[in-house]
Specification:
With about 350 residues, this protein is α+β, with helices and mostly antiparallel strands. Strands 9, 10, 11, 12, 13, 14, 15 and 16 form an eight-stranded mixed β-sheet that branches. The protein has a four-stranded mixed β-sheet with strand order 5-1-7-6. The chain is globular and about 65 Å long. The protein starts with a helix and ends with a strand. GO terms for molecular function: 8-oxo-dGDP phosphatase activity; 8-oxo-GDP phosphatase activity. InterPro entries: Nudix_hydrolase, NUDIX_hydrolase-like_dom_sf, NUDIX_hydrolase_CS, NUDIX_hydrolase_dom. Belongs to the Nudix hydrolase family.
Length: about 350
């Protein structure tokens, strides 16, 4: 999915190259469609104002990998392998470490299947993937991380296994559906892109799909910076906003970004199509950028500038077809209202 969005970004950038030089507030190269950040935006610092939880849903022949809790408050209950991302650690590194510590098994992440949040700065990233080695932890090997690990039929997890909390049941259900319907479709895979982020930022990939005379077209919403005389002097970028400036959650940020363009617009939030995070160095790159795919109705033609906004027609046939397919097969990471 990261590549699909990158292809659209490249298409936008290539059309506007040579039309005007980027202003000092804008990025060049790959960053040409990124919203320029200001000093007033709050830096994300892991452990202070942001927390990332990583969870793994690993399924083998209908059986779910579970770990038995060792913590005093929930000792003896079962849960998915999960935990907090540590300082100077990426999301992938965090989930690999947690699975190894709690189950004894080596885990290879394949895709994120769910991103949910509570409040403003608590985010949970749920991964699916495969086991590549290791040895399942037994009771004789229990430690502070877990008592043991085991494989259980999904039905047993849902009905009779004593769980620490039932919030993992929808995640397991999503995992089962992913393995059944999306595992073989590479278009449905999303892993974090290794781009450093200072803030927690939400970007919009707002699209309109038009089908006319058996021809499919795709339009993307882009922004421009303007000079005092109203001329657009910068390469375009996707609408974006830093989360937490006004205490809003992701749902509110997406709604605000859309309403800033047109308060009467009809739209559907499909899901996440990119995640950007490195976690290194701590204190400077603890942020994350989440790109949300939003489809707008009804369809309109290219252009139609409204203030700093413009509808841009993607000319590349492959990019158009891939975004259409992504929406049709629901290959995105589904948007969880928060």
């Amino acid at each position: 999915m990261n590549q699909l969005v990158s292809d659209v970004e490249n298409a936008i950038r290539s059309k506007f190259e040579g039309t005007s030089a980027p202003s000092s507030a804008c990025k060049s190269g790959k960053e040409a469609v990124r919203h320029p950040q200001t000093q007033a935006e709050r830096m994300a610092v892991l452990g202070q104002n942001v927390c990332y939880i990583v969870t793994a849903v690993v399924i083998n022949e209908g059986r779910v990998l579970m770990m038995r809790e060792a913590k005093r408050s929930c000792r003896g209950t079962w849960y998915l392998p999960a935990g907090r991302v540590e300082k100077n650690e990426s999301l992938e590194e965090g989930v690999i470490r947690e699975v190894l510590e709690e189950t004894g098994l080596a885990f290879q992440p394949v895709s994120i299947i769910c991103i949910d949040s509570q409040g403003t700065f608590w985010f949970r990233f749920t991964f699916v993937g495969c086991i590549t080695g290791g040895k399942l932890k037994t009771l004789d090997e229990q430690d502070k991380e877990s008592m043991e690990a085991g494989w259980f039929p999904a039905e047993e997890v849902f009905t009779s296994l004593p769980l620490r909390a039932r919030d993992i049941c929808p995640l397991i259900d999503l995992g089962l559906k992913w393995y059944e319907t999306k595992q073989e479709q590479t278009i449905c895979r999303l892993l974090p892109a290794k781009n450093s982020q200072g803030q927690v930022t939400v970007r919009l990939l707002a699209v309109k799909r038009v089908e006319k005379d058996d021809e499919k077209s795709l339009f993307c919403l882009v922004c421009h910076n303007s000079t005092g005389d109203g001329n657009h002097n910068c390469h375009p970028y996707f609408p974006s906003k830093s989360v937490g400036i006004d205490g809003s959650n992701i749902t509110h940020v997406v709604d605000q970004l859309i309403k800033d363009f047109d308060s009467n617009l009809q739209y559907k939030k499909h899901g996440y199509v990119t995640v950007e995070h490195t976690g290194k160095p701590h204190g400077e790159a603890d942020g994350v950028c989440l790109t949300v795919l939003v489809e707008v109705f009804p369809a309109v033609e290219e252009g139609g500038l409204k203030g700093k906004y413009q509808w841009f027609k993607v000319e590349e046939k492959s990019s158009t077809e891939n975004i259409w397919k992504l929406i049709d097969v629901k290959g995105f990471v589904e948007f969880v209202e928060s």
